[in-house]
TrEMBL record:
InterPro entries for the chain: AA_adenyl_dom, ACP-like_sf, AMP-bd_C, AMP-bd_C_sf, AMP-binding_CS, AMP-dep_synth/lig_dom, CAT-like_dom_sf, COMT-like
Keyword Methyltransferase: yes
Protein name in UniProt: Carrier domain-containing protein
Residue ranges of domain Carrier in the record: 1254-1329
Alphabetical keyword list: Methyltransferase, Phosphopantetheine, Phosphoprotein, S-adenosyl-L-methionine, Transferase
UniProt cross-references to Gene3D superfamilies, sorted A to Z: 3.30.300.30, 3.40.50.980, ACP-like (1.10.1200.10), Chloramphenicol acetyltransferase-like domain (3.30.559.10), Luciferase, Domain 3 (2.30.38.10), Nonribosomal peptide synthetase, condensation domain (3.30.559.30), Vaccinia Virus protein VP39 (3.40.50.150), Winged helix-like DNA-binding domain superfamily/Winged helix DNA-binding domain (1.10.10.10)
Length: 1330
């Protein structure tokens, strides 16, 4: 027997059933009509008038009572009255149709409910609701059944007439009485029918269907939630939708649509709000009042044609047709045909996943694991049923994906295996996780049940992100548990996403929020970008104390723990070198609409949170900024992230995520244990082994504490680095103070900070810090007057001769008015006079300024003018000095007196002078720990006086009583001559630039075999060169580092063996020096992290001459030293090793060193601009080739690059002149308007083609034509970049589809990403098929 109230009650599972409806008009109308029907009054009323007495006689009733009843019928429009008697109206004619029992039934209902109401008024008993009354009244329920059967019998003939004669299979949903299915089978002898209805609904139906034999099958299923089957030609949904709430009604129609084959028909029979005009006024007692119709019980709904059209359209049907039902005028029959195009439309995120799947067909980035450790007496069949019900209910889990649609496919299969131990189980998990999905041909979920023991199993689930997201896992978890506990459990209503109404407004918001975005975040300790997506995971835990702190701060700031955590992570990235303007991605669940919280599908959308952090702000201010940013973003999630990327015109790559490279999320936690019927289910979520994000952080709230994981790309970071990042994240969170400034936050523990600040900088020695160079050299002169001080070829000077010649020159300088800290230029050729002149200048308290005669005159003029050179020592001046006495001159010097001014490259186009004091140099050469310097040592001088290594080469041996051995440049570049010079002069110590050392190590390591010690530096040392130098017998090698601003050397590292691929460190600070790797807040970074190298101690120079602004910027107060001490910000990036050794990583700016010279490309650019011969220019460094390349837009297109370079050689030193100049019509720019360095042409691979080359093959012509059509540009050339022209993944797909169609070749989407030019793409296409 059909228990319709049971179905209706499901519509109100979340609230009480509605109270009884006691409308007076309904009550009186139904009572009058019901009484007339029961007495047979309408059998004796027609078009002809009949007196009341005649009617009374016909039915055997009392004339007075009949007259009252007839008058009531007149009052309600069922009858009319005139002088001749009573007639039936058109409305009364309905009583001969399927409504006859309805009026009688509702008469019974209302009589009983009025009685109930009277009783409740008298004795306070709550009235029964309709369902309770019907369930307790067997006679009423039978009458209710009869009413529905009568309606069906009246309607069925008309319905059977609209069933297509070609139909073979029919599904009747909720038609347990079998009347509709039976009528249809009788009308079509080839038709078979399935009837799905609730348990207990088929008693009368089976008997009624016996007339068609076995052509009707009955299936007891909850049609509101259960599987409906597939491949039907016709589906009937008759008089059931009113029982369901809107979301469930829509869901039923969608599932009914899936049960139909393409081209099949759905028929819907429902009462509507439309009442025929002939029903009369009061006579239409069934007109809806408070959502009631005749056949709608008191929880029912009335849906109109517009609502049906919307739902059917969303379910894949054409617009519905409407047919009035003559036997039941308040009903309408809706019919619609299922569109031939099958499938559920994917959202933008899912479409992007499909594109990625085609471009990276081997990737498993989107694999999402979920494991369930099951302990106890598991019923495997119950689990299998639970999983099957999950897959049936959540269509995303059983869909295949091709194009822009998802098509329902076969149900996934639970695979069962037995594993011997935990190791085998771990291997199974890993194998499942690393196995990709074939989305076009298989469901996006795999399930394996591994048996470890009789009472220990593990369910290994892996889904593809296209069918699930973080929130979905919580739904899947709960549904598995619910259905395992009760297979008859009714799931929550289905959900069908709808497009946002705010799409354009949201796009406009993002275009403004992300305007002029920062460059892609490249943390300084990250390795260069790499196409590999391989990733690793580091788990972390936040203690209950930290968790409590985070929650309290969030509560106080009217924020959320997510926003507090995001602020802390943003601050951490800022301190690690990620910049103060950064973009971090975060997912939003996309589940604001009712019903969306219960569906398994990928509804997530990524949003880009742009964080601008000011180190001077407090934590509270920063969190308010992040809170505002996040809330604004969450209010504009209607635009899919892929649409935002397109609006920003950001190029895409299959190797890097657009807009942001760091993601931070706080999804709901899936992990945890639940016991069902004695079986413990322990859920553990995970992540794939790949990532397109450089860094991804997931934080889960477990209640008492928090935890999660940090996922990173292994090609860019190491596990040790990411472990350190998490340690600092915890430290930062542990010290959160809303009132504190961000710049004061500590990332290291007290022990770690003390180690970096103190332990690794314990370098103090007892050296003559109060002595001057003059005093130290004169002491050596007095001790060893006849010892050799300098050897330059045939020219040999003893200490006495050096002192006397220096004294004579000093006397000349004194006579010419040179005194304390006056500037004296030295412009001499290579020889002993360098040492003589430098010493002489110092003796009078002046400072020397090296002037290399090889420099262009204009540069020398600037150096002299800038430093204030009063006199220049030349060979002529030296000759004049011979006439002066050889006695020592008196001068008042101090260790802080300026000793020399050395000029280095400057970004303004002019070099800048560094002022170095006596103490700076004494610190370099006395009581040192990085080399041995004594009276027996001979130190090679290979550097010019304008290169700061000459400081060590000159003053090191002279202050130690050793000797200088000059090595001419020709000998230095000739290994045989170098070996002879070193051998003949017993040279024990030499400094070589890294470039020269590399050349000698590769070609002639024997040339330096006689040395005892070798210092090398100026550029990054490579492992191969290091190993070759280490192999020279008897040679101690040290890698040295130090800018001019800290007096030649600040750190050194003595030779040790290195592991293959291990970087050569620059070492530790030398004696009486300090070195720190600091972040932007001048706090030490942790080992493995990257910061700027800061140098302190007694080697820090005075500053830049005449540049107080630059001096203040680069020479900063030392936060770790004595009051008044300073640190030099080198602009070099470095990192600590765990033992405190420092590695050089790169430059903060573009400054580099080539052949030992510091190069600032901006200086070269400035000089080129000043020539007036270029419109635009950029100078790039090719470090591997040790050369500069200039890209210029000439003012005159006919300008000769060779002539321009020759002109530049007259303005700049040789090491600053680009090796090649490349003429361009314009410098390439990124979409953000910044220089696109990657698009600059290789100068050694030929100049860019202009005008664009014409196709040379038929394939190139076809490809070029396709590009021009798809991109809408007729001027595209063979070598233009597809993505630089505005192409994106969708257009790329169009191009490749056209190519496949026109060339008949199997061409994958990835080809265009790997070969984004016409020429490149044409070259790799397979041969054309005939």
């Amino acid at each position: 027997m059909l228990d319709l109230p049971q179905a209706e009650r499901q519509a109100f599972t979340e609230g009480a059933a509605p109270a009884p409806h006691l409308d007076l008009v309904h009550a009186l109308s139904f009572r009058a009509a019901g009484a007339a029907l029961r007495l047979g009054v309408f059998d004796h009323l027609g078009d002809d008038p009949r007196p009341a007495d005649a009617v009374a006689a016909a039915i055997g009733g009392d004339p007075r009572g009949v007259r009252v009843l007839l008058d009531a019928l007149v009052g309600f429009g069922y009858a009319s009255r005139d002088d001749e008697g009573y007639r039936a109206t058109k409305a009364a004619a309905w009583f001969g149709t399927g409504y006859r029992s309805a009026f009688s039934f509702w008469h019974r209902v209302l009589v009983d409910q009025w009685a109930d109401l009277e009783k409740s008024i008298v004795d306070g008993t709550p009235p029964r609701d309709f369902y309770g009354w019907l369930g307790a009244n067997k006679a009423a329920l039978e009458e209710f059944q009869s009413m529905l059967g009568e309606l069906a019998d009246a309607v069925a003939p008309q319905v059977a007439g609209v069933i297509p004669t070609s139909a073979k299979r029919l599904l009747d949903i909720g038609g347990g009485h079998a009347r509709y299915a039976t009528a249809c089978c009788l009308a079509n002898p080839d038709l078979r029918a399935d009837i799905i209805d609730l348990p207990g609904s088929f008693d009368a139906g089976r008997a009624h269907a016996a007339v068609v034999g076995d052509r009707i099958d009955f299936r007891e299923t909850d049609w509101a939630t259960g599987d409906l089957g597939a491949d039907y030609d016709v589906v009937l949904v008759f008089n059931v939708l009113h029982c369901l709430s809107p979301d469930r009604a829509e869901d039923l129609l969608r599932r009914a649509g899936r049960a139909l084959r393409p081209g099949g028909t759905i028929l819907i029979l429902e009462e509507t709000a439309d009442v025929p005009t002939e029903a009369g006024a009061l006579g239409a007692a069934w007109v809806p009042v408070s959502s009631l119709n005749l056949f709608h019980t008191q929880g029912g709904q009335i849906y109109g044609r517009d609502q049906f059209a919307e739902w059917l359209g969303g379910a894949g049907f054409a617009a519905p047709d409407e047919t009035p039902i003559s036997a039941a005028p308040t009903f309408t029959l809706f019919s619609a045909t299922k569109e031939a195009t099958e499938g559920r439309t994917l959202n933008a995120a899912q479409r992007q996943m499909l594109v990625f799947d085609r471009v990276r067909p081997d990737s498993t980035w989107y694999n999402v694991p979920l494991t369930v450790r099951i302990t106890g007496p598991l019923d495997v069949e119950r689990l299998r049923t639970a999983l099957r019900l999950c897959w049936q209910w959540h269509e995303a889990l059983r869909s295949t994906h091709d194009g822009d649609t998802a098509t329902l496919g076969a149900l996934p299969v639970l695979r069962e295996v037995t594993v011997p131990d935990e190791a085998a189980l771990a291997e199974l998990r890993e194998q499942e996780l690393r196995t990709r999905f074939d989305l076009a041909n298989e469901p996006p979920i795999r399930a394996t049940l591994a048996k470890l023991a009789d009472d220990v199993h593990e369910l290994v689930l892996v889904t593809h992100h296209i069918a699930t997201d973080g929130y979905s896992l919580t739904v899947l978890r709960q549904d598995i548990l619910d259905w395992y506990g009760d297979p008859s459990h009714s799931p929550r209503a289905g959900y069908w996403p709808k497009p946002s109404d705010d799409h354009e407004a949201d796009l406009a918001f993002w275009a403004e929020a992300l305007a002029d975005p920062p460059e892609d975040m490249a943390l300084p300790f990250a390795a260069p970008a790499d196409p590999s997506l391989a990733a690793d995971v580091v788990p972390f835990h936040l203690s209950s104390d930290v968790t409590t702190t985070v929650r309290e701060i969030a509560r106080a700031g009217r924020s959320s723990p997510f926003m507090v955590l995001l602020t802390a992570f943003g601050v951490l990235l800022n301190r690690l070198g990620g910049g103060s303007d950064m973009v971090i991605g975060t997912p939003v669940a996309g589940r604001d609409d009712p019903g969306s919280e219960s569906v398994v599908d990928c509804l997530v959308n990524m949003v880009a949170l742009r964080l601008r952090l000011d180190g001077g702000a407090t934590w509270a201010e920063a969190m308010n900024t992040v809170r505002s940013t996040a809330l604004d973003a969450f209010d504009h999630t209607g635009a899919p992230f892929s649409d935002v990327v397109d609006r920003l015109i950001v190029s895409r790559s299959p190797h890097a995520h657009p807009v942001f490279q760091v993601a931070f999320a706080a999804p709901p936690s899936v992990d945890g244990s639940t016991t069902v019927d004695g079986v413990v289910f322990d859920f553990v979520s995970g992540t794939s082994t790949e990532s397109l994000f450089d860094i991804e952080v997931q934080v889960f709230d477990h209640g008492d504490d928090m935890g999660g994981y940090l996922k990173f790309r292994t090609a860019r970071f190491t596990r040790a680095q990411m472990t350190t990042v998490l340690d600092q994240f915890r430290t930062l969170l542990g010290g959160l103070d809303p009132a504190a400034r961000l710049s004061d936050a500590l990332l290291l523990t007290p022990h770690e900070r003390h180690r970096a600040v103190s332990d690794w900088n314990d370098t103090a020695t007892d050296y003559p810090r109060e002595s001057t160079l003059v005093e130290l050299v004169e002491t050596r002169v007095d001790e060893r007057p006849d010892a050799v001080a300098a050897v330059y070829g045939d020219e040999v000077l003893t200490y006495r001769e050096l002192d006397e010649r220096a004294n004579r020159l000093a006397a000349l300088l004194r006579e010419r008015g040179i005194g304390l800290e006056d500037r004296v230029g030295i412009s001499l050729g290579f020889g002993a006079n360098w040492a003589v002149s430098a010493l002489a200048v110092l003796k009078v308290g002046a400072a020397y300024v090296p002037l290399d005669p090889a420099y262009p005159a204009a540069r020398l003029d600037h150096m002299c003018a800038d430093s204030g050179v009063a006199i220049i020592v030349t060979d002529v001046v030296l000759q004049d000095s011979l006439a002066f006495p050889a006695d020592r001159v008196d001068a008042t010097l101090s260790p802080d007196t300026l000793a020399y001014i050395m000029y280095t490259s400057g970004s303004t186009g002019q070099p800048k002078g560094v002022g170095v004091t006596h103490r700076n140099i004494v610190r370099l050469v006395r009581e040192i720990d990085y080399v041995h310097l004594g009276p027996d040592d001979a130190v090679a001088q290979v550097s010019t006086l304008s290169f700061d290594a000459a400081t060590f080469e000159l003053w090191g041996p002279l202050c130690a009583g050793g000797r200088i051995v000059g090595i001419p440049k020709d000998d230095l570049l000739s290994p045989p001559e170098l070996a002879k010079t070193l051998r003949d002069n017993d040279v024990t110590l030499m400094f070589l630039t890294t470039a020269l050392a590399r050349r000698l190590a590769a070609t002639s390591p024997d040339a330096i075999a006689g040395l005892r010690q070798l210092l090398t530096g100026g550029e990054r040392m490579d492992t191969d060169t290091w190993s070759r130098l280490r192999s020279v017998p008897g040679l101690a090698v040290a890698n040295a580092y130090g800018p001019t601003e800290t007096t030649t050397f600040a750190l050194t590292w003595a030779a040790e063996d290195l592991a293959p691929g291990e970087a050569v460190p620059i070492g530790r600070p030398i004696a009486n020096s300090t070195a720190y790797v600091l972040d932007a807040c001048l706090e030490p970074v942790a080992p493995g992290m990257v910061g700027e190298i800061h140098l302190g101690g007694d080697g820090v120079a005075r500053g830049y001459i005449n540049r107080p602004d630059l001096t203040a910027d680069r020479f900063v107060p030392d936060p770790f030293g004595a009051p008044g001490s300073r640190l030099y910000r080198t602009g070099d990036l470095g990192r600590y090793r765990p033992d405190g050794l420092i590695e050089f990583v790169g430059r903060v700016d573009r400054q580099v060193k080539i052949r030992g010279f510091r190069i600032e490309p901006g200086e070269v650019e400035a000089v080129l601009r000043e020539t007036g011969r270029v419109v635009d220019v950029t100078v790039q460094v090719r470090v591997d080739e040790e050369l500069l390349v200039g890209y210029v837009v000439p003012a005159d297109p006919a300008e000769s690059m060779a002539d321009l370079r020759a002109y530049l050689a007259g303005l700049l030193p040789d090491h600053l002149v680009p090796a090649v100049l490349v003429a361009m019509s314009a410098l390439p720019l990124t979409q953000n308007g910044k220089l696109d360095v990657a698009a600059l042409p290789d100068p050694f691979a030929g100049a860019p083609t202009s005008p664009p080359a014409e196709p040379t093959t038929e394939i190139e012509r076809i490809v070029l034509d396709i590009w021009r059509e798809v991109l809408g540009s007729p001027t595209i050339g063979l070598h233009d970049d597809f993505f630089a022209l505005g192409g994106h993944s969708v257009k790329a797909g169009q191009v490749m589809a056209r190519i496949r169609a026109e060339l008949l070749v199997p061409a994958s989407l990835r080809l265009i990403f790997d070969n984004p030019t016409v020429a490149g793409l044409a070259a790799v296409l397979p041969a054309r098929r005939s």
